[in-house]
Amino acid sequence: MSGTSARRPRVAVSRTGLPGDAVKRLAARFDVTDWTGTRPPTGAELAGLVQGCEGLLVLGSDRVDAALLDAAGPGLRVVALASMGYDGVDVVAATERGVVVTHTPDVLADTTADVAMALILMARRRLGASMDALRRGAWGAFRMDAFLGLDVHGATLGLIGYGRIARALARRAAGFGMRVQHHHPRRREDDQLSHWVPFDDLLRTSDVVSVHTPLTEETEGLIGTTELALMKPTATLVNTGRGGVVDEKALLAALRRGELHSAGLDVMTGEPRMSPSDPLFSEPHLVVLPHVGSATEATRAAMVELAARNLEAVLDGHPALTPLPG
Ligand code: DGY
């Protein structure tokens, strides 16, 4: 025995108090520093935290760019996201530096699909506007013509993207008596739940269009004025993916002109710091949620657990469990 112990790998965690006990487990093996602030770290604060680290455990809303990777230094081996979306990561810069990036698919699919289904019901049945009216004291009498929405059963759901969350939503929609179709740009496969249709056909023939694509250069602004104009005036648009896929100005204009029945958004381009006077919040045919798709105790803990297991795997010299798709 030499009497000297090996230096433990250094790991930075971009928040404190993450759900579950995965970070505690990491701290038993690694030299873990977490961000202890009550608000998320700024880019500069995160850069200070990651210096000299071999592993980073971060959230989907953290920016992992070349500057942050360089702040960590050449020993950095893994960036483990507790998030399925990875649009905040400069994947090219990470690859150039030999850093493995991992994310958390699967574990949040059902939970996020629940929120997509809830948005469909809320927007189409005008449940958000009904609750607002009740809270304003505007419910004086039962009227046959008040708070009328559109039926969900018998409606056609069009899924843009057909990954895990979209499939989980397809299963739920079938239970609600909806017909389901989807568009995926590369995979033209049908299954028992849904059949593939061309993009424009999906927009023209769906009663509900639900967006499930990652935010990339190709999908930014995918649903804009032209696409909204193809949709039925009785249609509902739902987005639980990333705000940037939908052109919000075009959406508001379509709703105000009555060219679209309703919409439900769990994600917005300006999130998370949004003004209460944001026009999105005053449009009666729009239901907006603060990015709660994966927000259950069990799912958030499962996301942190999978991120931690990815980080451990790479630092132990094993392949990551869920690296980014190639
Ligand atoms: C995800 O995992 O991408 C969700 O949007 C939560 O960040």
From TrEMBL:
<dbReference type="InterPro" id="IPR006139">
    <property type="entry name" value="D-isomer_2_OHA_DH_cat_dom"/>
</dbReference>
<feature type="domain" description="D-isomer specific 2-hydroxyacid dehydrogenase NAD-binding">
    <location>
        <begin position="117"/>
        <end position="293"/>
    </location>
</feature>
<dbReference type="GO" id="GO:0016618">
    <property type="term" value="F:hydroxypyruvate reductase [NAD(P)H] activity"/>
</dbReference>
<keyword id="KW-0560">Oxidoreductase</keyword>
<dbReference type="InterPro" id="IPR006140">
    <property type="entry name" value="D-isomer_DH_NAD-bd"/>
</dbReference>
<dbReference type="InterPro" id="IPR036291">
    <property type="entry name" value="NAD(P)-bd_dom_sf"/>
</dbReference>
<dbReference type="GO" id="GO:0030267">
    <property type="term" value="F:glyoxylate reductase (NADPH) activity"/>
</dbReference>
<feature type="domain" description="D-isomer specific 2-hydroxyacid dehydrogenase catalytic">
    <location>
        <begin position="22"/>
        <end position="321"/>
    </location>
</feature>
<comment type="similarity">
    <text>Belongs to the D-isomer specific 2-hydroxyacid dehydrogenase family.</text>
</comment>
<dbReference type="Pfam" id="PF02826">
    <property type="entry name" value="2-Hacid_dh_C"/>
</dbReference>
<dbReference type="GO" id="GO:0005829">
    <property type="term" value="C:cytosol"/>
</dbReference>
<keyword id="KW-0520">NAD</keyword>
<protein>
    <submittedName>
        <fullName>D-glycerate dehydrogenase</fullName>
    </submittedName>
</protein>
<dbReference type="GO" id="GO:0051287">
    <property type="term" value="F:NAD binding"/>
</dbReference>
<dbReference type="InterPro" id="IPR050223">
    <property type="entry name" value="D-isomer_2-hydroxyacid_DH"/>
</dbReference>
<dbReference type="InterPro" id="IPR029753">
    <property type="entry name" value="D-isomer_DH_CS"/>
</dbReference>
<dbReference type="Pfam" id="PF00389">
    <property type="entry name" value="2-Hacid_dh"/>
</dbReference>
